[in-house]
UniProtKB/TrEMBL annotation, chain A:
One of its GO terms (biological process) is amino acid transport. One of its GO terms (molecular function) is transmembrane transporter activity. This is Glutamate ABC transporter permease. Belongs to the binding-protein-dependent transport system permease family. HisMQ subfamily. SUPFAM superfamilies: MetI-like. CDD domains: TM_PBP2 (cd06261). InterPro entries: AA_ABC_transptr_permease_3TM (IPR010065), ArtM/GltK/GlnP/TcyL/YhdX-like (IPR043429), MetI-like (IPR000515), MetI-like_sf (IPR035906). It comes from the Bacteria. Signal peptide: none annotated.
Amino acid sequence: MELFWEHREAIALAFAYTVLLFLFAGIGSMVLGTVLAAMRVGPIPVLRWAGTLYVHLVRNTPLVIVIIFFRIAAPKIDLKFNFVDVVIPTGVGDVRLNNIFTACVVGLTIYTAAFVCEALRSGVNAVPLGQAEAARAIGLPFSGVMTQVVLPQAFRATIPPLANVQIALLKNTTVAGALGVAEAFVRMRLLIKNNPAELWTLFIGFALIFVILVEVLSFISHRLERRVRVS
Amino acid sequence: MCLTGVQKHYGSLHVLRDIDLEVDRGEVIVVIGPSGAGKSTLCRAINRLETIDEGEIAIDGQPLPQEGKALARLRADVGMVFQSFNLFAHKTILENVTLGPIKVRKKSKADAEKRARELLDRVGVGHQADKYPAQLSGGQQQRVAIARALAMEPKVMLFDEPTSALDPEMIKEVLDVMVDLAERGMTMIVVTHEMGFARTAANRVVFMADGAIVEQADPETFFTNPESDRAKDFLSKILKH
């Protein structure tokens, strides 16, 4: 335990990266995933086809490969993220959001969006067809049908599977560690290397912090589920 | 409103055969016929919830647009009432009625709500405005659905078997609203099995069978002296009980 206390600042900083990776990729994947879902259930064949292709391509590719693509392959074809360089000073050291961090956020976003899309689509399919027909019948265009009637109902049916996807994302941020972001997993490896005798304490300690973070997500998801059930 | 030479197939099934139908302003048309005759399909084709293969449907001389904004505008002018009500489950009764006026007609929230409350009072569910659809009876839900369609100030109202999913004692409350609407001069096309409504409110009865219009006449002539054998057969089956 002293080890954790001794390194509390470095550990906090590492988890700051973890949480930031999660927040950016979480919001990004929700936005992109919603657009993809709208494409896949929409009336335009080309977009439907493109959405389907995206999901099949990205969902069937291992996360590591997706992130490596943006971290290593993409810069070779001049897709760099050098324009991003934000330094957030904290009391215990700087959090630096640079091109590597951004590449990882983009990779995580692209990857997770495919799952968000499919979770949403399952929700959309759970909304009775009559709801969309009634919305069309009062003259709403496709965008209105989706935003006013179908998606609000789909989101309700989708909260549990979406929570699953976001929980997976939170844990998947550790892959960014392997590619150069100093997040929690990297800090854990470093601590283990320097304190091999404390291997078990470190493993269990870091796992517990992740458990707590995921529990926070589960709690929010439960609250959301309860809130929408009333009405 | 004018339908000319409308054809529709579901695979090998010919669901609408050469439909010609003209509806004047203020006219109330009741479409009856055996199930599978294509009555609902016809109704749904008029605001293009179903596509048609051939022919033309025109409202006020304007042919039905294919897709997109123009079609949405047309749908706003055509009120539709469904067999299964289809009230928006996540919105209150008031929100159900104001959604179209606010989002499509771009009315202010206050104006839309004022008008919505008037309409809800008119169909007799004004006191339920803040409830959700699931908290209402079927008859009440269907009356809300009528108010929702009326809020768009449509040129014509389509009713697709509006009472078929209702308990017998709720049918009357919905039909009363429809009769009132007919008396106020609304142009209406009503697919129904309610022969009583056809007799009291219809200007014309259209009898369909096997995807085609077999016969049309004023209700008195149709019910007392139908021309076609198909209509005679149909009436003998439903009127005997």
